[in-house]
Design a protein that fits this description.
Layout (H helix, E strand, L loop, with lengths): L1 E9 L2 H20 L3 E6 L4 H7 L7 H5 L4 E6 L7 H15 L4 E7 L15 E7 L3 E10 L7 E7 L2 H16 L5 E6 L7 H13 L6 E6 H10 L6 E4 L1 H14 L7 E5 L7 E5 L16 H13 L3 H16 L13 H14 L1
Parallel strand pairs: 1-2, 1-3, 3-12, 5-10, 8-9, 8-10
Antiparallel strand pairs: 4-5, 4-11, 6-7, 11-12
The structure holds 1,4-dihydronicotinamide adenine dinucleotide and magnesium ion.
Magnesium ion (MG) binds next to helix 8.
Family: Belongs to the isocitrate and isopropylmalate dehydrogenases family.
Keywords: Manganese, Metal-binding, NAD, Oxidoreductase
Protein name: D-malate dehydrogenase (decarboxylating)
Length: 352
């Protein structure tokens, strides 16, 4: 079996963790023998943008379309405004390939300590609507610089968009032991889009009587995540809300550096994109200490998507063996480098 991967390291530590991720993937393919990865590198980061005036060249999405998956690092640089880099690269890919389901698992890996005393209770999957909502790109600025200057940022929710993310969330929740799905909205203050989210959720719920449901406002759910982590299993929320909740989830499970995410086009009309949830981390770029675990976990999700279930499981066990043995980068309180962690995971892959 051959899988084609578009590797897109992007900026900052993105290049460091993607290199580490590819090393681990190669070790897995060599160990398994049943599959091979054909990797093509795409240098579409902020340096490329400053040289060419665009992140994605003419026909770029067309080229990407041919790949089985996209392995993405992070985009963002101190030389380019963040809204330009985000809208220049990551959002056109996610939206262009209709990767509407963003899946973000969170749990505390062995040997890692959570800032919560009951952190071991964290075992969540946050489902983020990834194609519309608050990041639909709607709005504008008027009277720039005048005393009456104003701006709008209009969230757009479509029935199709909301229904498909709820259905996706129910399908995923159904496969888990707890079979519990929490709807997260803000339908007291936001009385149009969020009310529609709630309504459609309960319509879809009728098709999933085996999944327990409950509902929480987004502000209230943050306290529940911290105080009663065990009461949550799968959460479904809008683009903005889930963006915030998943950073909280990552921090509660030990570090932003360990959290993975998959941007899925569940119908598989287009390639899906796999990335760690962290950004390009200017403060540690070039120091060789970026935690690659989030990228490895991401790689495991990518292998699962490619149908390489054994390799995905083997990688997850190797990650857990490495974290359990205490090879930790500074964000987890250790002194290991990116290379130390990568080598530890590769060793466990070899010996598994
Ligand atoms: P960030 O995730 O880059 O960093 C936040 C903090 O977490 C920093 O102290 C950083 O050192 C630490 N951190 C992040 N990943 C780490 C890892 N793997 N190992 C160890 N420590 C890690 O978020 P920040 O600082 O808000 O953004 C920096 C840039 O990245 C901005 O340009 C932003 O727009 C971009 N960004 C891009 C994302 C993407 O491409 N998906 C996601 C988040 C931010
Ligand atoms: Mg985020």
């Amino acid at each position: 079996r051959v899988h084609t991967i578009a590797a897109m390291p992007g900026d900052g530590i993105g290049t460091e963790v993607i290199a580490a991720g590819l090393q681990v993937l190669e070790a897995l393919a060599a160990r398994d023998g049943g599959f091979r990865l054909e990797v093509e590198h795409f240098p579409w980061g902020s340096d490329y943008y400053q040289k060419h005036g665009h992140y994605i060249p003419e026909g770029g999405l067309e080229r990407l379309k041919a790949f089985d998956a996209i392995f993405f690092g992070a985009v963002g640089s101190q030389q380019v405004p963040d809204h330009v880099s985000l809208w220049g690269l990551r959002l056109p890919i996610a939206q262009g390939f209709d990767q509407y389901a963003n899946v973000r698992p969170a749990r505390v890996l062995p040997g890692v300590s959570s800032p919560l005393k009951n952190g071991q209770d964290i075992d969540w999957v946050i489902i983020r609507e990834n194609s519309e909502g608050e990041y639909a790109g709607n709005g504008g600025r008027v009277h720039r610089g005048l005393p009456i200057e104003a701006a709008t940022e209009t969230a757009v929710f479509t029935r199709t968009g909301v229904e498909r993310i709820h259905r996706f969330a129910f399908e995923l929740a159904r496969k888990r032991t707890a079979r519990h799905l929490t709807l997260v909205t803000k339908s007291n203050a936001q009385r149009f889009g969020m009310v529609m989210w709630d309504e459609i959720f309960y319509e879809v719920a009728k098709d999933y009587p085996d999944v327990k449901t409950d509902r929480e406002l987004v502000d209230a759910v943050t306290t529940r995540m911290v105080l009663k982590p065990k009461t949550l299993d799968v959460l479904v929320a809008t683009n903005l809300h889930a963006d915030i909740l998943s950073d909280l989830a990552a921090a509660l499970s030990g570090s932003l550096g360990i959290a993975p995410t998959a941007n899925l086009n569940p119908e598989r009309q287009f390639p899906s994109m796999f990335e760690p949830i962290h950004g390009s981390a200017f403060d540690i770029t070039g120091k060789g200490i970026a935690n690659p675990i989030g990228t490895f976990w991401t790689a495991s999700m990518m292998l699962e998507h490619l149908g390489e279930f054994d390799a995905a499981r083997r990688l997850m066990s190797a990650i857990e063996a490495a974290t359990a043995s205490g090879v930790h980068t500074p964000d987890l309180g250790g002194r290991a480098t990116t290379a130390d962690v990568t080598n530890a995971v590769c060793d466990h892959i070899g010996s598994a």
